[in-house]
Amino acid sequence: MKLDRLYLYDTTLRDGQQTQGVQFSVAEKRQIAAALDALGIDHIEGGWPGANPTDSDFFDSRPDTKATFTAFGMTKRAGRSAENDDVLAAVLNAGTPAVCLVGKTYDFHVTAALGITLEENVENIAASIAHCVAKGRETLFDAEHFFDGWRADPAYALVCLKAAYDAGARWIVLCDTNGGTLPADVGRITEEVIAAGIPGDRLGIHTHNDTENAVAASLAAVDAGARQIQGTLNGLGERCGNANLTSLIPTLLLKEPYASRYETGVTRAALKGLTRASRLLDDILNRVPLRSAPYVGASAFAHKAGLHASAILKDPTTYEHIDPGIVGNERVIPMSNQAGQSNLRARLAAAGIKVPAKDARLARILETIKAREDMGYAYDGAQASFELLARRELGLLPDFFEVKRYRVTVERRKNRRDRMVTMSEAVVVVKIGGEKMLSVSESMDEAGSDRGPVNALSKALAKDLGPYQANIDDMKLVDFKVRITQGGTEAVTRVIIDSEDGEGHRWSTVGVSPNIVDASFEALLDAITWKLVHDGAAPA
Amino acid sequence: MKLDRLYLYDTTLRDGQQTQGVQFSVAEKRQIAAALDALGIDHIEGGWPGANPTDSDFFDSRPDTKATFTAFGMTKRAGRSAENDDVLAAVLNAGTPAVCLVGKTYDFHVTAALGITLEENVENIAASIAHCVAKGRETLFDAEHFFDGWRADPAYALVCLKAAYDAGARWIVLCDTNGGTLPADVGRITEEVIAAGIPGDRLGIHTHNDTENAVAASLAAVDAGARQIQGTLNGLGERCGNANLTSLIPTLLLKEPYASRYETGVTRAALKGLTRASRLLDDILNRVPLRSAPYVGASAFAHKAGLHASAILKDPTTYEHIDPGIVGNERVIPMSNQAGQSNLRARLAAAGIKVPAKDARLARILETIKAREDMGYAYDGAQASFELLARRELGLLPDFFEVKRYRVTVERRKNRRDRMVTMSEAVVVVKIGGEKMLSVSESMDEAGSDRGPVNALSKALAKDLGPYQANIDDMKLVDFKVRITQGGTEAVTRVIIDSEDGEGHRWSTVGVSPNIVDASFEALLDAITWKLVHDGAAPA
Questions:
Q1: Could you tell me the pTM of the whole model?
Q2: Cβ within 8 Å of B, A 160-189
Q3: Same structural domain for residues B449 and B384?
Q4: Which ipTM value was assigned to this complex?
Q5: Number of domains in chain A
Q6: Does B320 lie in the same domain as B200?
Q7: Which residues, 6+ apart, have CB-to-CB distance to A212 below 8 Å?
Q8: Domain hosting residue A424, numbered range
């Protein structure tokens, strides 16, 4: 039996950019658009041409996509023709195959926010949509505040929708702009709209997460007959965010009744890239990915409770609703003082270390972990440091080298040209075998600007490790996360460092200290030691 | 008309503790329990007595609460009587008025995970519940994997529920343990259970957020007739978390049909404490609160889009689904390069700075903000630094003092007793009026342990500010957040510092630099300067 087509419309680059603290560059927008296209999204809304320079530049240089590139704008202002509205002109001049125009459908907004008559508003909608359709664009109408408008005056809200529909809009998008409408109401009102004569295969749904129901409300609209879902990657968006496509996509592909009732542009193969796409967006935003994110979060398939972990070892389906691999995510048996020995053995096995059950050293490792977690360490996210800790307890960690001392200086002062400049310098003394090595390094990059004390330290440390130099030459620090695990002046700092080598192996290490330089140094040392262990380097 | 009573059951201290990276101390559990009690939660589940030392200690020293204190455990194991099951005994020995026992209702789990017969499992449920009821406890039965079990074998799942019900369980809690059941199915199955003879006012719902539908699924169960909701503050919990009470509570109190159909233990007055309770939990967890959190997030009522902001200024209801004050949150007009001049003027007004519309300096301030945000600054969260930036542009910022130079040294080496120790020292030279002041400080706390370079700097800076000493003496650094705004070695560091004075005023400042010490220093300077401005200190 032929499946019904469901369309996915992404607005990460427009509504997503309304997120507090989010501002995309043109290059970043191109990168995100490519990722959305690889997923198989139907429409990519790139922004509002003319509203700000970035968006205009982006449309000029937008990538070629299978997805229908869409420019966002608003219906023409009153007192001028669609042809003579410069804002609308800027949107059309972007030259995209599709345009999405937001307009009012809530009488209160027409009078309170726009300050025009109800009739003028209907006229603006009809004329603007007709104008875009005449220009040969696939035209969408975003019915702003639709659900609030329908509750206040269903007759007028419907007149607005019909105006857009009769003018030839391909999609009429019901927007819950303020995000306060609950799923049951979204479903009921969508049914009422369809009953009033707008076919479901011309209806889209656009929800916000202000009651934490954006995903459920989108599903309710689909259940009622709507066939387009608007949302964003990672649920980015104004206030509490938009409907999260990262959660909706796997649900539509994997869960009933959707899986056997609808088809989308996203293939099972593309679905494997979902976790990567989600993490890419966080990388671009320099955000720590939300561990608890459905499907794609680092904790989404993490089994901390001892009972769960032991059952998982027998059969993963006991505590997993899907196989993490389907969305490109993975199972995690986090190390923590909650965990039982079965977690520990599973995690050691993952590191290639076999320890028989009931081995007394398992209890000792758990105690050490508990003690260190009390100090602020976190091994959930730092598998490499966990592995080193375990190897130490198990007597499987060679002494590669010893750090005798280090000194870092950060100085800010006027330079000769009387400009304030900052410089950092690090001295590290390590002992390898019998030999003592003293290295010094500044922290200037090519541009001659200071990269700070941690950079100076890592350079000094990597400068001369004698017999191990070849092992660390292809190592690079790819990420550096700092968490203050106690607020205020008593702050204890936790540093997590992600390292990568030439073959693309990636590993995470942790350091903890009230002194951020010290914490960083500890994580750096672990990173190098782990590399030496995995290269099978022989202790000098 | 008499309202139906809905009961709220909190499991933050038990299921919430299953969150990756979360481990509560006894003191923290007491603090959270008190906050939950102040909100008006009906049941507080404190943990699993006997499962780990912390939980056992907590029950021994638990606070007095209006809420029904509940101990969690599991049904007795096969092959022994309830009286002789030591695990069950430990739960009862906690001496709580209520106990909640988890048990299996899914045939696959009975055989695969427990490895006992289906009959034995039913016997374990009945005997365990009866035993707790006989001991005079309010007894709850957590039907683990109930929805999966019902789909696989509704007859057996029902037999398990009936066993608990007939044995006298006050509440039968339907658990979607793996979190994969969608709201529509939760609603339908809950109706079927009620139709099968378990009254709705004896049914609870326990969902997880693995498809981002935990809140919606809880509402669906209530719509179907269930009368207890289990969840956690901030949606803490295993994997993707539990149903988020922080989102559910305001929805139940403020949204229809719930507001006029049900009553809960949470009063409108207590609801004002919701945001504080949510932030308290994050403080305890040393987590940065989720800005986009529904109702309580810092961005939940932030209006970034220029169009939204200008409408909000006319009438807040245009873009807000509720009044933020009702949940103890507040409206934010964040500063950002997306914002129009109306945002800017509103935010300046909030800082007590009146600037006429269309004033040319407004555009200049916006440009400066854009330029600095491109460098990595973020003024959304740093109102005090935003205010100083604006005052500088407006010529409203006196020159209080000038920093001529500073130097910080961090050194790690062996001390006399041959132990590795770290020490930090800072020298700061400031010029006030004509006078030059040189201050030096170490970063040792009372315990004589090093608190790091930033601590040393802030101490040296605060040591002698001559005429301003009185202004800064009551200042303290209450929080310190570090964000790497570019990964890898090219990392640029953003530091946000929260400061507080004697009257409890709190303000946030930001500093950005590739050098974390420098970034911290910049934020420290802003914090002091803001205090001097607001004290109306006269420039020396």
A1: 0.79
A2: 177-180, 182-184
A3: no
A4: 0.78
A5: 3
A6: no
A7: A240, B215, B216, B235, B244, B247, B294
A8: 402-534
